[in-house]
């Protein structure tokens, strides 16, 4: 029997993010008071702690800030996926997000590689944003 994949659980603070991702849009919260754009979604601005937030549409373009190739699954549900790339992607807007880089040879991914978002529909309820290489020279 295959282990069930752990799934993210939306909270009141992250629900707008997951709703946007389900619609194949990438967004991040921004503080209306100090204009800080941040990721991961949370109820208060990490800069000024204000709770007056809005959501900004992101381009989905960026570069690999850091990455590693996972060769041994940390959870049984990912055993069929190794090797895979776990990365921190820095988006054009400056926020960084943890993700996977897909649709490529895992050994070919390196810091500074240009990437763009793609959306993986896991099932009817869940879509995950992942990134794929942009076919161009490194930044």
Please provide a brief summary of the model.
The chain is 6% helix and 35% strand. It is mainly β and 139 residues long. The chain has two domains: 11-57, no CATH class; 60-134, OB fold (Dihydrolipoamide Acetyltransferase, E2P), CATH 2.40.50.
Helix and strand arrangement:
Elements: H1 15-22, E1 27-31, E2 53-57, E3 61-70, E4 84-91, E5 96-101, E6 114-121, E7 127-133
Antiparallel strand pairs: 1-2, 3-4, 3-6, 4-5, 6-7
Secondary structure class reads mainly beta
CATH architectural designation of the largest domain: Beta Barrel
Beta content comes to 35-45%
- Tell me the series of helices and strands, N- to C-terminal: HEEEEEEE
Mean pLDDT value = 94
Radius of gyration over C-alpha positions, nearest whole angstrom = 16 Å
* Backbone shape: globular
The level-1 CATH class of the largest domain: Mainly Beta
Query: What is the CATH topology descriptor of the largest domain?
Result: OB fold (Dihydrolipoamide Acetyltransferase, E2P)
Poorly predicted regions: none
Instruction: Count the domains.
Output: 2
How many helices? The count is 1
End-to-end Cα distance: 44 Å
Largest sheet: 5 strands, antiparallel
The number of distinct β-strands equals: 7
Amount of helix: under 10%
Spatial strand sequence of the major β-sheet: 5-4-3-6-7
């Amino acid at each position: 029997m295959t282990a069930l994949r752990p799934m993210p659980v939306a909270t009141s603070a992250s629900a707008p993010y997951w709703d946007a991702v389900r619609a194949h849009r990438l967004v991040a919260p921004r503080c209306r008071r100090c204009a800080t754009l941040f990721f991961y979604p949370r109820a208060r601005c990490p800069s000024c702690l204000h709770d007056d937030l809005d959501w900004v549409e992101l381009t989905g373009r960026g570069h690999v800030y850091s990455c590693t190739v996972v060769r041994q699954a940390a959870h049984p549900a990912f055993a069929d996926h190794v090797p895979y790339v776990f990365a921190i992607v820095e988006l054009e807007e400056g926020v960084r997000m943890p993700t996977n880089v897909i649709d490529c040879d895992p050994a070919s991914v390196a810091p500074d590689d240009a990437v763009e978002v793609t959306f993986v529909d896991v099932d009817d309820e869940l879509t995950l944003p992942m990134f794929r290489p942009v076919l161009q020279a490194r930044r």
